[in-house]
Amino acid sequence: MARRSTRPPHEPIRATSMWRVDQVFLSRRGLRVEVTCSLVNDRGGLRNLSVTAPTEDPARAVRHAARFIAGQGNVSGARQARVRWAREQAVTEQDALIRDHDLEDEFLDEFEETLAAVRDQQR
After folding, report:
1. By CB neighbour count within 10 A (0-12 exposed, 13-18 middle, 19+ buried), where does 99 fall?
2. How large is the greatest C-alpha to C-alpha distance in the chain, in angstroms?
3. Phi and psi of 36, rounded to 5°?
4. Taxonomically, which superkingdom (predicted)?
5. Higher pLDDT, residue 99 or 14
6. How far apart are alpha carbons 119 and 99 in whole angstroms?
7. Model confidence at 66, in pLDDT bands (50, 70, 90)?
8. Beta bridge partners of residue 25, listed in sequence order
């Protein structure tokens, strides 16, 4: 009589996983802005990618980061990504909760343009 396994059936191992940008955090590093993007995948995975932009202008920094992230090749989207300043940059606890909708638009526009260019090159 064969024993029944209580383990769930094996799921195939994915060589790659598609990620999406969930949140974007900005922090000042001297005369530059560091942008950290929090990515999630459909399996519940989480990872962060950081890039230091060669500028102190937050709008240019998020555009720089969007090009970097979209160029990774396995990041599929950034819809509804929230952009805010990192906790250490906030003056009050309320500041840490405030989203910057203008920077969100800058990030999403640049991300979508770069992603479209990457997809065109792959065709």
Report:
1. middle
2. 71
3. -115, 120
4. Bacteria
5. 99
6. 29
7. very high
8. 36, 84
Contact 86, 25 (CB under 8 A): yes
DSSP class of 89:
G
CA 108 to each of CA 5, 59, 73: distance values in angstroms, whole numbers, following the listed order: 47, 11, 16
**Amino acid letter, residue 116:** A
In this prediction, residue 86 carries a pLDDT of: 81
| 16 φψ region: left (φ > 0), alpha (ψ -120 to 50), beta (else) | beta
- Cα–Cα distances (Å) from 119 to 51, 73, 113, 116, in that order, read 22, 9, 10, 5
User: Given the structure tokens 């799921």, which residue do they identify?
Assistant: 11
In Å, how far from its chain's centre is CA 14?
A: 20
Instruction: Report the alpha-carbon distance of residue 82 to residue 100 in Å, rounded.
Output: 8
